[in-house]
Amino acid sequence: MSRIKNGIILLILISFLSFVAIVPVTCIIKTVTGIYCPACGMTRSFEAILHFHFIDAIWYNILGIPLFVFIIFSLIMVGKDFLQNKFSYISNVLSFFSRHYIFIILLLIVSLVFNNLKW
């Protein structure tokens, strides 16, 4: 059963990266409110990272590089869990997020402010 869960999570992560790389994404929050959300510029940031333009990646979204590294690391760890037929990485990540949610909210606020001040 855990092998199926890991396979589904791995498929979702790979699909997300493929989707972001291929399909242009429009921010609904920006369209409706005119305010850049914490995730605005993330697609351009990921694209800049893939072209090794790290300064541009930071400019597009200050959280782009940490999130990109987290996604790649998560792909590797979920793949490892999948091969070992266990389900520990995702539960560890969820536990980390539940313990450090205030820090994550602060990061999102910093990104929101940064995204709206730079334009």
Topology (SSEs and partners):
Elements (H helix, E strand, L loop, with lengths): L1 H21 L5 H6 L8 H9 L3 H7 L3 H21 L4 H11 L1 H18 L1
Verbal overview:
It is a single chain. This protein has one domain. It is globular, with a radius of gyration of 16 Å. Helix 1 runs antiparallel to helix 5 (64-84) and helix 3 runs antiparallel to helix 4. The model has no long low-confidence stretch (mean pLDDT 87). By secondary structure, the protein is mostly helical. It has 7 helices and no strands. The protein starts with a helix and ends with a helix.
Characteristics of this structure?
119 residues; single chain; 78% helix; mainly alpha
Structure in a nutshell:
By secondary structure, this protein is mainly alpha-helical. It has helices at residues 2-22, 28-33, 42-50, 54-60, 64-84, 89-99, 101-118.
